[in-house]
């Protein structure tokens, strides 16, 4: 393979297609690779053009043909099943709220795919993520509404010098405009909104098909039984709709106990937490310091103290945060720079 080659991960969507097109327009040598992660044949994903459907592979192939670049399909379905889908099921079974996009970026997109790019002789791997890498540090995208650095905090640190995000300085309207200007065949393709392997959004049914769950009790904060449920995988911290208990005031899921299969509900005030523990850390700075901490996607990062405590970090927010859910990512920022992060512990 020639020098200065860039491998672009083509998902079939407009973002990765535009990233590839901009690199080609700039005169770079580009190869497109689509990852086959999940067979969505026969599901709504295969019809609606969502991630992992057969249509997405064909859309990526059409983009590569339009750009006149080599194109390959790499099958990572076994890795994806083991590292992302099985983890998703296990986390719900443990009473936690999983984040499959973070796990996919950690274990699939920036590990085996990056290794494949290097094996091809590429000097960089580019994706259509909205984020930036500046001076070897992961940073937020210019477009705050599309920023995806939250999902990327767990990518291997060693990958940072090798990875490129061509869309990091653009907003979505600019990306669409470039796609149309460059005549990309998927320029008007809608964005996928659901998790790729749960295209109908019914997470509970997916979990139950893969690991049947036992019923349990719904209790108040004093332990009084208020009703029953069909499995803890139906619940996440902070949930209000679908709790299944009638009350004079709104009830929210306050905690989920996987051992007793008890779901505890309470008032909104019971969701507030000033301190959380964060484990499974990735490139965390290592000493106590101030930072802004984001505990879910599309959520504003809040000022807090970070304090090391063994193999975890204690996060003390300046003001209580609403409904931090065990299993979700907590990402640490200094302005727009990602300091590191981990996953919220119980």
Please describe what this structure looks like:
The protein folds into 3 domains: 5-181, HUPs (Rossmann fold, 3-Layer(aba) Sandwich); 213-266, Adenine nucleotide alpha hydrolases-like domains (SH3 type barrels), CATH 2.30.30; 271-344, Translation factors (Elongation Factor Tu (Ef-tu), domain 3, Beta Barrel), CATH 2.40.30. It is 25% helix and 29% strand. The chain has helices spanning 14-25, 44-48, 54-67, 77-93, 100-109, 112-119, 149-152, 172-181, 203-210; strands spanning 5-9, 29-36, 71-75, 124-126, 131-134, 137-140, 163-164, 216-219, 225-229, 252-257, 262-266, 272-282, 289-294, 302-309, 312-322, 329-334, 337-344. A hairpin with a 7-residue loop joins β13 (289-294) and β14. α1 packs across α8 and α4 packs across α9.
In total, how many domains does the architecture comprise?
Answer: 3
CATH class category label of the largest domain: Alpha Beta
Give the percentage of residues in beta strands: 25-35%
Question: What's the shape?
Answer: globular
Query: What are the segments in which pLDDT stays under 50 over at least 5 consecutive residues?
Result: 45-50
Q: Give the integer mean of the pLDDT values.
A: 92
Helical residues, percent: 25-40%
Question: What is the gyration radius calculated from CA atoms?
Answer: 21 Å
Order of strands, widest sheet: 12-15-14-13-16-17
Number of helices: 9
Question: From the structure provided, what is the oligomeric state, counting identical versus distinct chains?
Answer: single chain
Q: What is the makeup of the main sheet? A: 6 strands, antiparallel, barrel
Helix/strand order: EHEHHEHHHEEEHEHHEEEEEEEEEE
CATH superfamily of the largest domain: HUPs
The third-level CATH topology of the largest domain is: Rossmann fold
Beta strands, count = 17
For the termini, the CA-CA separation is: 48 Å
Class computed from helices, strands and strand pairing: alpha/beta
What is the CATH architecture term of the largest domain?
A: 3-Layer(aba) Sandwich
